[in-house]
TrEMBL record:
One of its GO terms (molecular function) is hydrolase activity, acting on carbon-nitrogen (but not peptide) bonds. It comes from Heyndrickxia sporothermodurans. Residues 66-247 form the NodB homology domain. The lineage of its organism: Bacteria, Bacillati, Bacillota, Bacilli, Bacillales. Gene3D superfamilies: Glycoside hydrolase/deacetylase. This is NodB homology domain-containing protein.
């Protein structure tokens, strides 16, 4: 009996040790937070703050420094990214563009321009799936294909930042991303800007950004939005006038 118990215990330990991810939750988290206002920071709550800290992820920076981080999600091109890049170049503002496989294969020249002009390319997955619903192997493949194709068409050989598709993540996906050398970059400022058939004019974008902005904000914008492209230059100039500066996400503190 004792021998059988010992063998059973050893087998159980082997199973646990060979599958450590089994103890990690894959419960989907749909990223959300209480929006910032009056230049007070957005808040996701203690539980999310602790979970992100555990996996070296972040969604906002130092509340005492008027530093902003521009991030753009690029699933496909809608004709406005060149204008966005023109504004960033004119205003000397860096950004990170989270791209998909579709964007890399359809717009390699724009991706190359991003890197040439000092911006970062981030990983938004190859096919934009809900990463909590794919296997470990598929998740790694999704990230590797974006990294490899970016390296092939640009001078950026390394990739360390991940924006989860649809803002859906779990502790499992964060841990796997960490193992692959990635940090989850979430956001503390966003609004419904991605619906191309519901654009409302540049002031809609401008007003939403200015109402939510706060020290340390990580801004999520979509380049498919005409509103964003038309508002961006005024947004940047007016935020600079308020004393804000812009840093690239790899300078995050």
């Amino acid at each position: 009996m004792k021998k059988w118990f010992l063998i059973s215990t050893i087998v159980l330990l082997m199973i646990i040790n060979t599958n450590p991810a089994s103890a990690i939750s894959n419960a989907p988290i749909h990223w959300g937070f209480t929006k910032g206002k009056n230049e007070q920071q957005a808040e996701a709550g203690k539980a999310y703050d602790e979970l992100l800290r555990k996996h070296h992820a972040f969604y906002k920076g130092d509340p005492n420094k008027k530093v902003l981080y521009l991030t753009f999600d690029n699933g496909y091109e809608n004709g406005y990214t060149p204008k966005v890049l023109d504004v960033l170049k004119k205003e000397k503002v860096p950004a990170i563009f989270f791209v998909t496989g579709h964007y890399l294969t359809s717009e390699p020249k724009l991706v190359q321009r991003m890197v040439n002009e000092g911006h970062l390319i981030g990983n938004h997955s190859w096919s934009h799936p809900d990463l909590t619903q794919v296997s470990n192997e598929k998740l790694k493949e999704e990230l590797k294909k974006v990294k490899d194709e970016t390296a092939r068409i640009t001078k950026q050989k390394e990739m360390h930042y991940l924006r989860p598709p649809r803002g859906i993540l779990s502790e499992r996906t964060m841990q796997l991303a960490n193992e692959e050398g990635y940090t989850h970059v979430l956001w503390s400022l966003a609004f419904k800007d991605w619906l191309v058939d519901q654009q409302k004019g540049w002031k809609y974008s401008y007003d939403n950004i200015m109402a939510q902005v706060h020290p340390g904000a990580v801004l999520l914008l979509h380049t498919v939005s005409k509103d964003n492209a038309d508002a961006l230059e005024k947004v940047i100039k007016d935020l600079k006038a308020r004393g804000y500066t812009f840093k690239r996400i790899d300078k995050f503190k």
